[in-house]
Write a structure and sequence with these properties.
This protein has 390 residues and is α/β, with parallel strands linked by helices. The protein has 14 helices and 12 strands. The protein folds into 2 domains: 130 residues, Aspartate Aminotransferase, domain 1 (Alpha-Beta Complex), CATH 3.90.1150.10; 243 residues, Type I PLP-dependent aspartate aminotransferase-like (Major domain) (Aspartate Aminotransferase, domain 2), CATH 3.40.640.10. The strands form 3 sheets. It has a 7-stranded mixed sheet, sandwiched between helices. Helix 2 runs antiparallel to helix 3, helix 12 runs parallel beside helix 14 and helix 13 packs across helix 14.
Length: 390
Amino acid sequence: MREHWQLDAETAFLNHGSFGATPTVVLEHQAELRARMERAPIQFFLREGPVLWADALERVAAFLGAPSSELAFVTNATEGVNAVLRSLRFEPGDRVLVADHGYPAVHHAVRFVAERAGAEVDMVTLPFLQGLGPEVVVERILGAVRERTRLAVLDHITSPTGVVLPLERIVPELQGRGVDVLVDGAHAPMQVDLDLSALGAAYYTGNFHKWVCSPKGAGFLHVRADRREGIVPTSISHGYRPELCAADRFRAMFDWTGTSDPSPMLCVPLALDTLERIGGSFAAIRDRNRALCLEGRAIVAEALEVVPPAPESMVGFLAALPLPDAAGAPPESALHFDPLQLALHDRHHVEVPIFPWPEWPRRLIRISAHLHNERSDYERLAAALREELR
């Protein structure tokens, strides 16, 4: 199925999780939308655009299992997280709960908001290399709740470790203790069969550019109906109309935050259709990709001579494995490469991420599986690792 993407034919692309990859037919549709926009900007933005936007949001609502009145498009999950965190009001002494498997950029946003308000951040340590399981995750997160814990910010699928957390158990338990939950679901759409209404989290944000394969710049924010009041986008624009009811005001604010290119969001329905056309039902895609990810994990684990650290029940389209400790200075930031990652790409044409985790010099390699991958991609990575680490 690789022919449906424009990925480099010489490279084994095992880093779909970072930025995704968009099928050619979806990119062509985006180009058509942009051409329409440039031919008649007023017609597109003020007459056609709102109808296209509303239709796309209805399709997204059906896919995510939530009413469209509780949904808004954002450019990515980071924007969704910031919109919620910077809308909430914390008092000195309030506490925000996060887990050490979380995405660093989200942790930065939590710390920024907490420091500004005089609130505290509590970091829960979850196991990974040994002892990981749903029961342990539930126990540790619930055990970290304190008297003034107001919010828990949790991944649905963790970024560095690729673990699917049992949120269907955690969310109701936390909210029963008076703790709202903001879910960073950056990796969840398509990996998980989402039903946001049933999950019941106060706030949930995710990406479409990853596993749904839309163009970059398409994400969503879900805000439960009883939490919409006071949640505003990161940019306040014409939609800020206090005279509207909470539901109408929420949509008005998020639907128009200023002039931008709406084509990534408008391409989400076609991206969903395209995956179904080439991969079968969403359930079939999930089963196929998860089985391939587990197969790839076993191949790479054998090459590294390690035991896969997470139970199979907590694996989706991502899997992380420990590497030997690194030598030398750590990467300057999350946007810089580990030398082994550069070697795998430059010498072996394998694109795969390597993260310092939980802290340098310890590190993980994270593989991914989507419809454009096959067994030979992981065999190539395994051979490259044997050569580079001997």
